[in-house]
Amino acid sequence: MLREELDIDTELIRGSGGIFEVKVDGQVVAKKTILGFPDEAEIVRSVGKALGG
């Protein structure tokens, strides 16, 4: 979805312990919280904002 919406490439880095973070230039812009995972639209918005969009 990030490719279609923002035309960017992504990389999946495997972690452990249920950690889920989306980073842009090393800064966490979206992550799993006690309430659950962010949805696709929230991730796209957060990444776009971090990229200045």
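^ that was protein a. below is b, sequence first then the tokens
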Amino acid sequence: MKKEMADTPLELSYVFTVEDLRRLLEKRDGPCVSIYFPAHVRPTESRADSILYRNLVREVEKILQRDTSPSLTRGFVSQLTGLDQPEFWERGSAGVAVFLSSDLFACYRLPVEFRTLEVVGVSFHTKPLLRYLQEGLSYNVLALSLHRVSLYDIWGSRVQEIPINGVSRSVEAALGREPATAYRGEHPRGDDRIHHAQGDGGDDGKTPLEKFFREVAKGIKKKGLNDTRKPLILATHKQYASLFRKVAQLPNLLEEGISADAGKLSVEEIQEQSSEILRPEIERRIDRARKDFALASSRGQGSDRLADVARAVAEGRVKQLLVESGRRIWGLIDTHTGELIPGEPEKNAYDVDLLDELAELSLTRGGEVMVLTREQMPSRTGVAATFRF
């Protein structure tokens, strides 16, 4: 390492996007520390999370003491242990991922239960997060009512609310008036304040309700949650849905949403109803991906040969990559040329999972990745790619 460790500001986030992955994969001066562990949603159970985290930091410290200078070890350990504060554990999550290098200190609290893992190397270990992005089980729900705005990150059956800083929690708050708890229900009839929110626009022609919806949409975009690869489902009263869609212009907002008073829905009801909406959407996406591959392959613009796919990924030519869930193909890959060196059936110390590696490279180079079951795959090689050209 060329310079001694200096304190790097902590970046704490409750969302993880492809842009975050790209940043983690940037070349850095080693060492790079990656820590993953399962956690608890309830703050009352956070003591166990704190103990587990301290144990993992101690394991990292042993590695650093062996391979780096004492001063660098002290700097890294000081920053990692500094994270272990009561306020950090106040907001729970199913899993935590921590990354530290000389120029980055980031922590992600997500609704996925990571396996306990600590890695120190020349780059960050991102495979667990890659799978989080790939699996097709991750999506967002915006529960929107006039008196409350909530954004949820859902992964399978796990639900986690995402803070949306800088966004008013209600239309009343956006107008700078009394708290929204002063009115009841969703229907505006008989409430002069809500009539006003929906009424004539000001000098710019926009109603207060439109301005409020634009503010909400802007907050979502700031978090990077308008990426078309991660679906967003809207839960709101039917009378607000069309206006929000028109105002927000979010490309990943599904056409079908939850039509209900979002303020009266429990988290469990939101998860249940949104999963019912998402299931046919995922099936449509899989069917479309299979058809796109078949057409591209017939035109020489797609392939299921591992060597061809690897070269195309390295050249940034893959538009969509399909990989088989649970399958492992060991070997080595030159990320610049795509040249492969096949490994043995059983992994050795130098091999990587080529399917994981290709998925990671494809995502960071602008490709879309879908992880499908063996039955869903359009090939039997474990991989299928549609090329841009």
